Amino acid sequence: MLQKIIAVGNSLAITLPASFMRDAGWKAGDEIMVEHNANKQIAVVMPKIHSGTKHLTPEFYEWLDENATKYKGAIKELANINDNKLS
After folding, report:
1. Is there a contact between 26 and 32 (Cβ–Cβ < 8 Å)?
2. H/E/C letters for each residue in the chain?
3. Which of 21, 31, 61, 82 would disulfide-bridge 48, Cβ 3.0–4.6 Å?
4. What does the pLDDT profile of the chain (87 residues) look like in tens digits?
5. C-alpha radius of gyration, the chain, whole number
């Protein structure tokens, strides 16, 4: 199905036909997962799964970024050791 990208406020959106929504059993307000690969210019839309699982918090990502910066040298060294073992 050919769809058009539309502007919605400061964002862009793609509409889904009512027949698709009805057949998929989705309704306005449902949460969905969108997997995408910009390099391949593809996006896959699927129902939200594992709704009972805990998600990573923004604070975790902040901690991860801080430690990745702090231990950048050690991480690179470990990556090089692993690469050398594969050779």
Report:
1. yes
2. CCCCEEEECCEEEECCCHHHHHHHCCCCCCCEEEEEECCCCEEEEEECCCCCCCCCCHHHHHHHHHHHHHCHHHHHHHHHHHHHHHC
3. 31
4. 788 999 999 999 999 999 999 998 999 999 888 888 888 888 888 887 754 556 667 778 788 889 999 999 998 888 887 666 655
5. 20
Q: What is the pTM of this model?
A: 0.47
Integer Cα distance of 70 and 64 in angstroms: 10
Domain-wise residue ranges, the chain: 5-47, 56-87
Tell me the CATH number for domain 5-47: 2.10.260
